[in-house]
Amino acid sequence: QAAAIFNSAFGSFLGIVITPLLLLLFLGSSSSVPFPSIFSQLFMTVVVPLIIGQIVRRYIKDWLERKKPPFGAISSCVLLMIIYTTFCDTFANPNIDLDKFSLIIIVFIIFSIQMSFMVLTFLFSTRNNSTFTPADTVAIVFCSTHKSLTLGIPMLKIVFAGYEHLSLISVPLLIYHPAQILLGSLLVPTIKSWMVSRQKALKLTRQPKAPVKV
């Protein structure tokens, strides 16, 4: 959980610098970045709710454990609404100018990038001299390669407010988020089995060997 929170916050702040540079490199377009405004808005949308949640949790923890509100279902519904409204807002723009063939190519590239990142992080975290546990590897594979619409889209709207190609820039993120959900859902059973078997193997290797009687 700590790794996921750090990845989300750090990735958002890093994107403020990297996104305009990539836009300038690939599209030849520039954009002014209002850093004070972006940092303050990200602070209010990420850090402040986290702090308030941790403080409130201390006082209502027992009540939450008794009542067990369906926060998981609520967050999933909110996330689906964000994805749906963002799709509608993006593809309803008549100036998006994106043909079907280009959209298929984008989908293929994004799936390839997502799989490549997951494979590379898995190989990196399971190398021979690595000190990561199997549980660490699972966290690294999923947390370091994922990006959420809940922060990505607001950040794009803040950084590129008034930019005429904003809808076109949002398309890769709109595809990347469902792609990571799909790939993650497909990989969960496999990577869970790998983690359990690896943990059992590590326990067996760490058990002291019984003395051999002569």
Automatic annotation (TrEMBL):
Parts of the chain that traverse the membrane: 5-26, 38-59, 71-92, 104-125, 137-160, 166-188
Cross-referenced InterPro entries: Na+/solute_symporter_sf, Put_Na-Bile_cotransptr
Record key words, sorted: Membrane, Transmembrane, Transmembrane helix
Signal peptide range in chain numbering: none
Keyword Transport in record: no
Gene Ontology CC terms, in alphabetical order: plasma membrane
Superkingdom of the organism of origin: Eukaryota
Pfam families, sorted: SBF_like
Family designation: Belongs to the bile acid:sodium symporter (BASS) (TC 2.A.28) family.
Protein name (database record): NTCP7 protein
Species of the source: Sakesphorus luctuosus
